[in-house]
Amino acid sequence: MFNFRPGAGAIVAADSKNAVAAVDDALLNSVRMYASIIEATSSSDLPASQSQKLLASMTESLNSVVKGRGEMVATIRHLAAIKAQSNFAPENFGCPDTWPATATATPPAETRRAPRAEPIRA
Asked: For 116, phi and psi rounded to 5 degrees?
């Protein structure tokens, strides 16, 4: 059994929730930026080759954020598996009910990858 100091579990749980929320906010703001780029470039005289570079770059950025979020979720699952074998096992820090059951299962690599977003074509 792993032993942690009292209060550590609640702190890690709160920080985990805050971290996921921050990544979700970053993703939402990135999607808004993506839409703004499309709106700005579609009504401009910017050559298609230049707007394509912008869209490709922004797409890579979005993919990176989604991939990072997936890695964070995998970390939280691992934390839940550790918690189950610790002095915090009987505690409930508000984790989703399905996470502890899947905490020890590592999803196949292809299910952990973020789908590649294709640029929107007008």
From this structure: -75, 125
pLDDT tens per residue, range 65-116 = 999 999 999 999 999 999 999 999 988 887 655 555 444 444 444 444 455 5
Asked whether the beta carbons of 18 and 104 are under 8 A apart, the reply is no
Q: State the sign of the Cα–Cα–Cα–Cα dihedral 109, 114, 119, 122.
A: positive
HEC string of the chain equals CECCCCCHHHHHHHHHHHHHHHHHHHHHHHHHHHHHHHHHHHCCCCCHHHHHHHHHHHHHHHHHHHHHHHHHHHHHHHHHHHHHCECCCCCCCCCCCHHHHHCCCCCCHHHHCCCCCCCCCC
CA distance 27 to 32: 9
